[in-house]
Amino acid sequence: MHKESGGNVLAVFSGIVLQVMVPMLLIVGLGAGFHRFFRLDLNTLSKLNMYVLLPAVAFINVYDSELNGKVLAAILGFLLLQNGGLMVLSRIMAKLFKLERSMAAVFQNTVVLNNSGNFGIPVSQLVFHQHPLGATIQIIVTIFQNFLTNTYGVYQFVSGNGKSGKWAAEIWKNPVLHALLFGVVCRWLHVPIPSFLWTPLRRVADAFLAIALFTLGAQIAYARFNALPPLVYASVFGRLVLSPLLAASLIFLLGIDGVTAQALLIASSYPCSRNTALYALEYDCHPDYAAQAVLVSTLLSAITVTGVVYAARLLFPIAG
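Now predict its structure.
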């Protein structure tokens, strides 16, 4: 039994490293190299991500998802409690660290928002290949994170720039939010998307991961990782350690078990959202720090996420 558990842990670890981490880091490295040689226009890359690629991904994620009402309600209840708790805890930490307004905004986003899509979905498919419900739950978490990023996350960046009075207008101007809402409407009304629209939409969405990671690489091309600011480690601790601890506590309190409990705990452990770095660049709100937090948390998550997967299987065994 111990041998099998050890084999499972090694399989999960090698799967995360080879199927998720290595491909991501190769593209990040390519972006960093290109920016050093060719001095890319980061503003253009930011606009491409924000106004073309992200909206396509957001719409497709919502439109393609299979949502069961009862399971969805239970999961959303947990997500509201968990993310609300992270918002409060990260705000308290920002106060304790005496961070100025804009830095506090970015710090809170690095703790609350996670890479549930391009990191979480491959990991969930790897871990729950025998239990499709686990992968479905990860899709729901991803959609929730999309809404959270484009409401709470944008509000944080806008308020960090001293424009809190205009936060509603800034959020409403966000094309990603429009895409999410349009996707929900089309999904609920069962509106068919003709192939001449769906094909280019899907191709644009497929380009998102590569270009977003390429942009992240360009952002950190000149970053010094031998002298990281202490706040980066605080962000990494909040995202990779504090978040799953809070999630585990809530799962026990709410009496959730089995595949649902495992999926929610694992979904809470993913690294800082890549979109945090993209939005920090778009709103010119400490983009270097945001990019460092994303990259460091992504590197360390190969170890921490594997640990959480192992803990989830021990704490919430699946019957039968």
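Residues 2-315 form a domain with the Na+/H+ antiporter like fold fold (CATH 1.20.1530.20).
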